[in-house]
Amino acid sequence: MAKYTPPEQDKALQFVDVGFLLVAIFLALWLPLQLGLAGAAKAIDKIENPTWELLGQNATMVSIWEKLGYTPATAHDIIQNRFHYNIDWLSLVIMAAILIGYFVFLFRASDKEYREVIAEKFGDSK
Amino acid sequence: MSQAAQATGQVPAAGQRISLLRVLGPAHVWALGVGIVLVGEFTGWNFSADKGGALAALITCWFVGILYTSVAMIDSEVTSTVAAAGGQYAQAKHIVGPLMAFNVALYLVFAYTMLEVSDSILVGDLMVTVAATDGLTRHAFVVLTIVVLAWLNYRGVLMTLNVNFIITALAYLSIIILFFSVQPWSQGVVLKLNELVTPQNALPYGWIGVIAAFQFAIWYYLGIEGTTQAAEEVRSPSRSLPYGTMAGMITLLIAAALTWYVCASLLPWEYLGFTFFPLFDAARVTGSPTLEFILFWGTVLSAVASANGCINDAARAWFSLGRDRYLPTWFAAVHPTYRTPYRAILFLLPIALAFAFIADLNQAITFSILSGVLQYTFMSINIVMFRNKWPLGSIRRGYTHPFHPIPAICLFLLCAITFFAIFLGFGSQLIAMVIFYVVVSIWFHFYRYRFVRRGDQFTMPWPKPKGY
Amino acid sequence: MWFTLSYIAWAISAALALWMLYDWFKTDTAYSEDQLTSSREGEIEAVSEKHKV
């Protein structure tokens, strides 16, 4: 197989390439933050006038919370901040599809490129 | 002996090739692997208690331990055979193909850069907590951590990893000291496990919580696979890498078990899932100022060791990308005196700083975990392809892992569970990040790859793979 | 005390960053680009590890 000679890349375009990657990274980090999608999906189950008992803490736990400097009022937001796991099947299917699609593309495109590499390195003969 | 002193006799003459230095032994490999990971015991793993309760944190600690034992075994086999800077990147390039390699390198760079960011934020926050001074922000300490470590990395790998060995060992020692100071053999004296973890609160979310907890249980061990990045700088890669990685894994399994036992016996699970410093808080609860002091420094040192190793690894992955023209070759420069990938180190420095200012800690950790899990998924498929293309006996392997393909299957299943765990509670972030990888993959395959030389990428002196 | 410490931290960071920039500039002007990027993957592999069984 003929040896593939890559085109020489202009210095300025090299900067553009690195810039593209950087912009993509910042977007991947920023967009979820901006759209309020980042972080854990948690919510506080509010209890009016919390006491240690209402918060479900036994004597040992209370002594530790107090050592750490908490009162029922300040501990309330930590203890009652809970996950609510309900599986949204639609988004699960979307996630699985994106993930599987990504891997399929990755392996198929890699294989195509890999065959060229092997052909050039070892020659076409088996 | 400092790297600079050692290297000064070796300033290359004009025309001589400049490569990385082969100076590291198994202890450095251990220091690199455990150094990156150990911070996970001081912070991070405890969020698995947040997602599923204290018992879920323990159950997932074991299962994820199996995942990582598989990772370490598979990694040792492949890397003892493909010994090049970039580690899994070079593996992917030789076994799966260029696009996969590009993605793997990005996983590496982001897993490590984000971990470095989290580490430095942790150091900054801890300083601010201890100072308890109004108006003091963490920024100065965050910047100091990142810049000093980048400087250390710039000046040479031997010194960098010697430092890492010492501070990792000290941080590890602090866990051991805490463990033996709380009389672990007699429950009820200091430790109160059965009063803190009761049948009612052990699994507050039931079994779905256990699955969800997989996400942060990854943090017990995330980064152990980084040992392979040193492949080009280790004196005898086919021996040192498997040895250092396996020893590191055993060290971490012990540390994880001790950490869980002490923390779950001293802190209520709601607090455990909330705090950023579980071991430090456990020491505070014992009421001993000495333990508090030791664990404060343990936490700081572990975070510094981790950031240090991360700079080392991320820079090598970035450097390898440049060397193969996946990115501009400009990044593939090696410093003539210190023999480090200095431009990659310098380039990643402001990026880490920028993220340390804008990103939030949870997000940085999640990005890091996700990149890690994508990489493990790749590794499970990679090892099967490796064994198929070059069956045992066709090339010399430094180490051959037993029970193939059981570790690969375990790894794949556990990765699938972890993806589901991330979906529970962090789903939208997962989708955003996978879309990022999809976009850059398309960009690479259809545009950037044209600048890459084809046959030159395959550098190992191996026979032609089977089936091609 | 802590504010002084944080100023010292800024100063050290700035000094080290400047040193790295200086050294980078010095290195890049003293050596040719070809020599700096002359490292090749698998170079030592080819000599020390023979993949013949």
What do we call the CATH homologous superfamily of chain B?
A: Amino acid/polyamine transporter I
Helical residue percent band of chain C: over 70%
| Average pLDDT for all residues of chain B | 91
Order of helices and strands of chain B: HHHHHHHHHHHHHHHHH
Poorly predicted residue ranges of chain B: 1-9
Provide the β-strand percentage band of chain B. Answer: under 5%
Largest sheet of chain C: none
Class of chain B in CATH? Mainly Alpha
Radius of gyration of chain B: 22 Å
Helix content of chain B: 55-70%
Shape of chain C: elongated
Q: Could you explain how this protein is built, in words?
A:
- The complex is a heterotrimer of chains A (126), B (468) and C (53).
- Among the domains of chain A are: 46 residues, no CATH class; 40 residues.
- Chain A is 60% helix and 5% strand.
- Chain A is built from 4 helices and 2 strands; from the N terminus they run H-E-H-H-E-H.
- A two-stranded antiparallel sheet of chain A has the order 1-2.
- By secondary structure, chain B is an all-alpha fold.
- In chain B, 68% of the residues lie in helices and 0% in strands.
- Chain B contains 17 helices and no strands.
- In chain B, helix 14 crosses helix 15.
- The longest helix of chain B is centred in the last third of the chain and has 41 residues.
- The N terminus of chain B is likely disordered.
- Chain C has 53 residues and is mainly α.
- Chain C is 74% helix and 0% strand.
- The N and C termini of chain C lie far apart (66 Å).
- At the A-B interface, helix 1, helix 2, helix 3, strand 2 and helix 4 of A face helix 6, helix 10, helix 13, helix 15 and helix 16 of B.
